[in-house]
Every structure is written in structure tokens, then in C-alpha cells.
Amino acid sequence: MKILTIIGARPQFVKAAPVSKALQRAGHEEFLVHTGQHYDPKMSQIFFDEMGIPAPNINLEVGSGNHGWQTAQMLMGIENLLITEKPDWILVYGDTNSTLAGSLAAVKLHIPIAHVEAGLRSFNRRMPEEHNRILTDHASDLLFCPTQTAATHLANEGITKGVHIVGDVMYDAVLGFTGLAEQNSTLLKNMRIAPNNYFLATVHRPANTDNPENLMAIFEAFRELDENIIFPVHPRTRGKIADLIKNIEEFAPKLKLIEPVGYLDMLSLAKNAKTILTDSGGLQKEAYWLETPCITLREETEWVETVDAGWNTLVGANKEKILSAIIQWTMPYERPSIFGNGDAAKKIAHTLK
Prior knowledge:
- By secondary structure, this protein is of the alpha/beta class.
- Helix content is about 50%, strand content about 15%.
């Protein structure tokens, strides 16, 4: 079975790591395509190196750009590859422009589509990712859902054929790499910060970074926290911060902006943090699995299960809500196993076979 896999952004590299290994073990031939959506070495190559992901067969090197231009460039490149390589399946992950471009190219050439992380919904139509995931789900032939909630969303939209609840492949990755992260990551030691003595923050979504009022409210909340805050900064976010706050060290002395980190360092940071403050979808789940409190800087989330379980609090970009959520958070009594058993990748490979 020949499977052409499309990846292009940091979260997709994490998801692809366990799945690529499972595909190989199941005897599939995988042709790996990197669109180049994330191209900075610290946002891309480091993940391949640390997680043992096979080198891409081809990198389209599309780079950044407006949504329409970027998606169009990917669509043209992927279409040519599909015509040349003639795969049995195309495999896409999540909800990025790379996902949508791969799905559109495949469906027009009548090549079956398998969508990993199908069925997620934020019900916020202002998010580009929401449109990407809905369109991809409605074009897909196999829909691999991480949770029952995701499968229910699909059923509500009339999609019941080809739906499989397999668990979350990111959970596979966390189980497989957390021990290695604890052994190999020296970031905290190098920064001279003790475990459980800092907050971990990430902000990258346009709803926050492209809205000066939202971004300022978040940073004003950071300034009032009497804790070290480690903030690996997305390259695009760094420019937005510089436009808004001229001297960030003076504005918030305990806020430590660092370069993007690899997967192992991020796992270590998340596991040892006192609290996580983020607008990332993946980090919300990693916080849940690593038993770290999470404050989500959004009004909604695709991962409602983490909120229902009491491990995640939605606060938006509201200074008072951010500070209040940190003060009022209490440890839940339990952490339900709602994302599978850590064998999602194996189930995906088996179903494709």
C-alpha cells in the first residue's frame, strides 16, 4: 500500500512521528511530503532529528504568505506529485493550509483521503483552521477521530461512513518521548530555573497576535504574575510583541522570551511547569496528559473534554480572567482516559491496511 503523507507545520510533525513508524511496521510504503509551511529549522528540522521522523521525500518549500497564495502554491505542488506518484491513499493531519491543500488536490484526482484528527470543531467560523478541518472532513474517506466527541460532531454533520475512533496520536508521542525528554533536556538547568517554579506560556494564534488589544491584555497579565514565565516565541509573534512593547524586559522583568524549542525541550517545560498559559491546541492536551494546569487564552476550544474534566480553563484575552483562573484553580479528583490508550498510530496503520 502506497501512502502519500502531507505535513508542513510543527504540530503535524509531532503527529506524524508515531504514525510514520506504525506505517513502516505495517508494511506500508510512505511517500512523505513537507510543504514548507513551517520552514525555520527550530520550527521544523529539529522535530525530524529528535523524533526520528523519516526525511521527507520532497520539500515543496512554499514558505509563508497570505492564506490564498500559500494554499494555492501547495495545491499545485501536491497535485503534480499525486499525478506522478499515484498513491493508494493520501494521509493528512489536523487543520492547517497544508491539510486543506492536500485534501483538495486528492479529491479532484479521485484519490482516497485519510484524515488524522478528524471531527474537531471550535464552532468559531472566524478561525481559518475551522474551515480547513470542516472541508477536509467532508472530502475524506477515512476519518480518524481522537475522541467520541469528535465522532459525534461528524455524525451531527451527516458523516458516519469511514469514521473510526482511534485515540489521539499526540498521546502516542507523549508516552513515547516524555522519558527521553526528562533524560535529555537541559533547558531548565541552563536557565537556572527549578521545576515547578515557573509558568510556561505560548501565544501564536492570529486572534491574539493580530489584535493589539488582546495581545496587550495578555502581556499585562503576565507582568502582574509574581513568577518566572518561560515563553518560547513563535517568530511571527516576536515581531508583533516588538511592535507593541518596545522594551519587553523592562515591561515584564520575570518574562523570559526564548527561541522556539524542539519537542523534547517543550515536553520537559510542560511537564515541570507550575501552570501553562497558551492558545495552542496541542499544548492543552499535553498539559492534560502531563497533569499540568492549563489556562487557555481563547474563548473556545476544540478540546472541550479537558475543560469538562477540570484541567483546562478558558479565559480568552482578558487580564482579570487570566489572573483569577490562576488563583482559583484547584486540582481535579481524577483525569479520565478520554484520548485512547496510546496506540492510535497502530490502529490507523491497521485500518489503512
